Amino acid sequence: MELKDKKRTIEELLTKQLFFQREYSIYHLEYEKEMSFYKAVQKGDIELVKKLMLPLKNEKLGSLSKNSLQNLKYHLVVLISMLTRFSIEGGMNPESAYTLSDIYIQQVDLLSSEEKIEKIHEKIIFDYTNRMAKIHKTLGLSKKVIKAMDYIYDNIQSKIRISDIAKKIDINPNYLCELFKKETGISINNFVKKKKIQAAEKLLIYEDFLVAELADILGFASSSHFIETFKAETGLTPKTYKEKGQFTNL
Fold first, then answer.
1. CB proximity list for 45: less than 8 A, separation 6 or greater
2. Is residue 62 classed as helix, strand or coil in its secondary structure?
3. Is this model's pTM higher than 0.70 or not?
4. Sign of the alpha-carbon dihedral angle for 43, 47, 48, 49
5. Residue closest to 181 by CA, chosen among 191, 195, 166
6. Which pLDDT tens digit goes with each residue over 145-196?
7. SS (HEC) of 83-119
8. How far is CA 87 from each of CA 12, 82, 147, rounded to the nearest angstrom?
9. 114-138 and 94-110 helices, crossing angle to 10°
10. What is the number of helices (H) and of strands (E) in the chain?
11. Is the C or the N end of the chain the one with fewer CB within 10 Å?
């Protein structure tokens, strides 16, 4: 089919679809309401997000596939893409945002029922919203503390020493500990521990690692130390957590 014919066909389909929507009062979401939802996520306003979010099964979202399961998947992928871009504009690290997007899209692709898609739909929205809320809390932090956090995120799969962080950001180790605790309300060691366990949670859900492998990947001294730390943070052993298949830390 020539390009001109293709364009004509698309225009004909568009004209028919718009006519159908007008005749049967089927409209897409109002732009301002849709933007309000994404901006609420961007601000990390979980209560407003709960008020504005709509169920994934909504006729106003339009039809992207005649297959109902595939249609939900397509809409959820669109949602994830929008959440990712609004989050980046709101201050989320682009690499983190795109990686999170990839993880969720891969998960959506594997789902085999509408019920499972609807369940993960809410979790994705709340995950992005809570992450943005945490980012906004860090906006009042000093550059040194933010750099320390960045170092921890970048080296989460290594054994992290306070002396290494201090050297990297050119600050006295003792002063760094005092400053970090003062601004965040948590010690650097506890912050590192929490972030490592959050990383472990995601790896347990999305990957098929043995406990010993996870302990090694995340820089724990031993498997027993990892299990003990994981249970202290989540209330569950890694094995039980994986069987339940859901995050305790968003």
1. 129, 133
2. coil
3. no
4. positive
5. 191
6. 988 988 888 888 888 999 999 999 999 999 999 999 998 889 999 999 998 9
7. HHHHHHHCCCCHHHHHHHHHHHHHHHHHCCCHHHHHH
8. 36, 8, 20
9. 170
10. 13, 0
11. N
d(CA 155, CA 158): 5
Say which DSSP state 155 is in.
T
Look at residues 135, 104, 141 and name the one whose alpha carbon lies nearest to residue 41: 135
Predicted confidence at residue 27, as pLDDT, reads 44
Quickly count: other Cβ atoms within 10 Å of residue 35's Cβ.
14
Summarize pLDDT for 74-88 with one digit per residue, the tens: 989 999 999 999 898
For residue 149, the number of C-alpha atoms closer than 13 Å in the C-beta half-sphere is: 21
Instruction: Residue count of the chain, please give it.
Output: 250
Angle between helices 223-234 and 188-206 (to 10 degrees): 100
Torsional sign, CA 54, 50, 100, 35:
positive
Cα angle 205, 246, 216 (rounded to 5 degrees) comes to 40
Q: Kindly report the number of other CB atoms within 10 A of residue 85's CB atom.
A: 17
Burial label for 164, CB within 10 Å (0-12, 13-18, 19+), is middle
Buried b (16+ CB within 10 A) or exposed e, 175-209: ebbebbeebbeeebeebbbebbbbbbbebbeeeeb
Q: Which tokens sit at 115?
A: 């019920």
56's tokens: 């994934």
